[in-house]
Task: structure prediction
Amino acid sequence: MKSNLKQVMKEMREGETQQQVAMNLNVTRESVSAYENGRAKLPPDIAQKMMEKKQNPWFAIALRNEYTKTGPIRLNGPNFDGHRSAIREKTIEEVKEVLGTLEDFSFAKPLQNISDWERPKVDLLAEHIVEAITALEHTLAVLCDEAGLSYNEAWSRHYLELKSKGYVQ
Result:
């Protein structure tokens, strides 16, 4: 499995030359080329500038995966149907699946004390959570792309709500 970051960066140029992107980011054209071809890691400050300017959800997903090797990756295999209606249906399926698995698993005792026969249920729950997160991320990305919503603004509003409810400081 290879990173999508290089591909997403090239797509984000949307007809701009590397030189134009470099000027907008206050870096050299050679730096942009190196980032796009994987010869250099994209520095956090440049990644933030790119995210602010483009607000591309696929870029955010690719960045997280590139630097943490966790989180969803953009699905693009031969069995993936990227149409918004197919993504919607798959998301509903994955969310129902995780809810069912979550309802079937008891959190009554500390998880470090689960028995060997309970372990497969924990593994299955984790698998279903990861699948639902991937589906939800794709749904959000498609919503932002096709409806012209701001990915950054969606997260900013969420963070403000978390703060207003006292979940974060």
User: Anything to note?
Assistant: The helical segments are 5-12, 18-25, 29-37, 44-54, 57-68, 84-104, 119-147, 151-164.
